[in-house]
Design goal:
Oligomer: single chain
Distance between the termini: 23 Å
Number of strands: 7
Strand order of the largest sheet: 2-1-7-6-5-3-4
Number of domains: 1
Helix content: under 10%
Largest sheet: 7 strands, mixed
Shape: globular
Radius of gyration: 11 Å
C-alpha cells in the first residue's frame, strides 16, 4: 500500500509499505492492505512502517491519519 508521512516542514516518507502502525489517541492501530476507510487523531509516539526490506520508525508529536483506497496519509506534527 502507498504511505505518505508529512510534517509542516518536510516529507518524512513517501513509498510502499506492507503494514503501518500509528499511535492513536485510544491506543496503537495497525493498517494492512485493503483496510476500511478511516480518519482519526494521533497522539505523540512512533509511526512504524514495515517495508519489503526493513522496519522504519518515525517519531511524531500527534497529528491525523487518513486511510483510503490502499493509501495511508499521516499528517504529523
Amino acid at each position: 500500500m502507498r504511505v505518505e508521512i508529512i510534517t509542516p516542514d518536510k516529507e518524512l516518507f513517501k513509498g510502499e509499505a506492507r503494514s503501518v502502525t500509528v499511535p492513536g489517541v485510544d491506543g496503537s492501530m495497525g493498517f494492512l492492505e485493503n483496510h476500511a476507510p478511516l480518519i482519526t487523531v494521533l497522539k505523540a509516539g512512533d509511526v512504524k512502517l514495515k517495508t519489503e526490506k526493513d522496519v522504519r520508525t518515525f517519531p511524531v508529536n500527534g497529528g491525523v491519519v487518513e486511510v483510503m483506497n490502499n493509501t495511508v496519509l499521516v499528517l504529523a506534527e
